[in-house]
Design brief:
The protein has 203 residues and is α/β, with parallel strands linked by helices. The chain is built from four helices and 15 strands. It has a single domain, classed as Hexapeptide repeat proteins (UDP N-Acetylglucosamine Acyltransferase, domain 1, 3 Solenoid). Keywords: Repeat, Transferase.
Length: 203
């Protein structure tokens, strides 16, 4: 399944596990055509591929009372082999790409759309315990070392630059950078400077 064929705003709730994994592994291949044997080899060899499979299994298991203990066990195993803490209660649409797993943290309250791309040392979570976690639209890319924190909304197609700290809503199609993050480019022809609107606290 081409990544472009994944419907917008898809969540995995109505998708079979096999269909979700097919979309994820196709996206992880990043345009390369892989046979089933080569996909299996990559899952065996590369931690980021195993992390995606393990996370999806844990998310499905977590939906049932019986499966929750196994989901938490899988989450712990994933942290052990990949250094990524991927909470099974999170909801992430199909077409997920994890570029590198080291230091990656996704909280249990995170909701994300289709075709999410995550780099190493990214944190998606809350600013304080039980303070709410972010919701991300479709086609969002989060660069290495970036933090997206609190009950905020990140629009479709947003690119979050490396090492950014995002603490407030970001409109669709924008590029944000900095700590605190600011909009450095908007969708369409309109552009703003690197000292554009501060999105660290809703200003």
């Amino acid at each position: 399944m081409p990544a472009s064929a994944i419907p917008r705003s898809s969540r995995t709730g109505t998708w079979s596990l096999r269909r979700v994994l097919a979309a994820d592994l196709t996206a992880m291949a990043e345009g390369e055509t892989l046979t089933g044997r080569r996909i299996a080899a990559r899952i065996c060899v590369h931690a980021r591929w195993r992390a995606v499979v393990s996370w999806r299994l844990a998310q499905r298991l977590h939906r049932s009372r019986i499966g929750k203990p196994l989901a938490l066990w899988l989450t712990d195993r994933t942290l052990g082999f990949s250094a990524a803490e991927l909470q099974p209660k999170s909801s992430v649409g199909p077409g997920l790409v994890i570029k590198h797993t080291g230091g990656l943290v996704v909280g249990g309250g995170v909701v994300a759309g289709a075709r999410l791309t995550l780099h190493q040392n990214v944190t998606l979570g809350d600013r304080r315990p039980f303070g709410g976690q972010p919701e991300l639209g479709d086609d969002v890319t989060v660069g290495a070392g970036a933090c997206v924190l609190g009950p905020i909304s990140i629009g479709d197609g947003v690119v979050i630059a490396a090492n950014s700290v995002v603490l407030a809503d970001v409109p669709a199609g924008c590029v944000v950078a900095g700590a605190p993050a600011r909009i450095v480019r908007r969708a369409g022809p309109e552009q703003v400077s690197s000292t554009g609107r501060d999105v660290s606290a809703g200003r």
